[in-house]
């Protein structure tokens, strides 16, 4: 028997455990997590907090019993204090204070990420929260239920910040959204798209404070105001959503790290220690758009990396196909999806690109149900391979992004898309489809 210890039981750890337990009979699997629950879909927190779904129960997609039934041994509410990589020992401390050691043949680190916590004065005041774990969502949900909470400051206008700002607004609060950047969602979309998102946020009463940096929190025990480089604002609750850093605490002294501190892994999810694998938000990933190793913290990437690690630990050599970082967001009815690189991201990574834009109705003008669609296709100037795509509409255009994801993975050129066989039916689309029209208008 091969004993595999998995530290961390969210998306990546669960995918690795399932792969090992479902496909290999010679595996003894031990799962360790400091939380009291596993498999929480954090991307659903804002839906629950904003009362767009009835309860949080459905955000847990598996449970401890499922894994124990397959033969796994699980230690929840258990902290891993350290790992002795020479002796292949995981040193643990249980909730009751009992210290114990788990030996391993193979170790899978699925320790995820930790919220960025700026060292600003007043950060220890009450009613300043992060959003990461289920317990964080519970705490924010409970506070928003209080009539004493009127003004909510959200720090960070990335995906989580924008989503929780919408949720707090849906709960009837005055919401102030802050970001040091000049617009929302700059990591995933170019300005042509984020201008629409910023408009939607403003139209729904969210007070945008972009290009403002939080300098201090003030208050007596509880937070009462936030001070930025441009002013001071009365607030009753602060939700920090600035971003995340890889949680490398257990291996940073032993394992090779990426420039942002993530565990550097190969296409098999193997670290610089051949007996140790790293998956999910604590590890690097290969980007097909960049054609290089990078860091993209997304649940879908976590699942895929866990599957790859599981097979390799089990003895089946499986190489990751790489990722595109496909993602999406839906705020007050505006849907935006993207994959690969934006024009701005390409420039930051030193890739010379061109792009082609097109805007049209989803369906022919005579159709009653209709909406505007915007599309941008980004392609490398030299090779003309597609490296990114962005779409937005109040229609559900999300399925289109999967095609672009595959196009990036397969190094499809912009010219190949010009005469792509796309069906037409008025119920769905136009005879001159916006994908075709965007590709045809490329230089």
UniProtKB/TrEMBL annotation:
Gene3D superfamilies under this entry? Answer: 3.30.390.30, FAD/NAD(P)-binding domain (3.50.50.60)
The record, for InterPro entries, names: FAD-bd_OxRdtase, FAD/NAD-bd_sf, FAD/NAD-binding_dom, FAD/NAD-linked_Rdtase_dimer_sf, NOXase, Pyr_nucl-diS_OxRdtase_dimer
Gene Ontology MF terms: oxidoreductase activity
Domain Pyridine nucleotide-disulphide oxidoreductase dimerisation as annotated: residue spans: 334-429
> Which terms are listed as keywords in the entry?
FAD, Flavoprotein, NAD, Oxidation, Oxidoreductase, Redox-active center
Q: Catalysed reaction per UniProt?
A: 2 NADH + O2 + 2 H(+) = 2 NAD(+) + 2 H2O
Say yes or no: keyword Repeat present: no
Q: Which residues form the FAD/NAD(P)-binding domain?
A: 3-306
Q: Look up the EC number in the record and give it.
A: 1.6.3.4
Superkingdom of this protein's organism: Bacteria
Cite the Pfam families for this sequence. Answer: Pyr_redox_2, Pyr_redox_dim
Top enzyme class of this protein?
A: oxidoreductase
Q: Which cofactor does it need?
A: FAD
Tell me the protein family, please: Belongs to the class-III pyridine nucleotide-disulfide oxidoreductase family.
Q: What is this protein's record name?
A: NADH oxidase
Organism annotation? Enterococcus malodoratus ATCC 43197
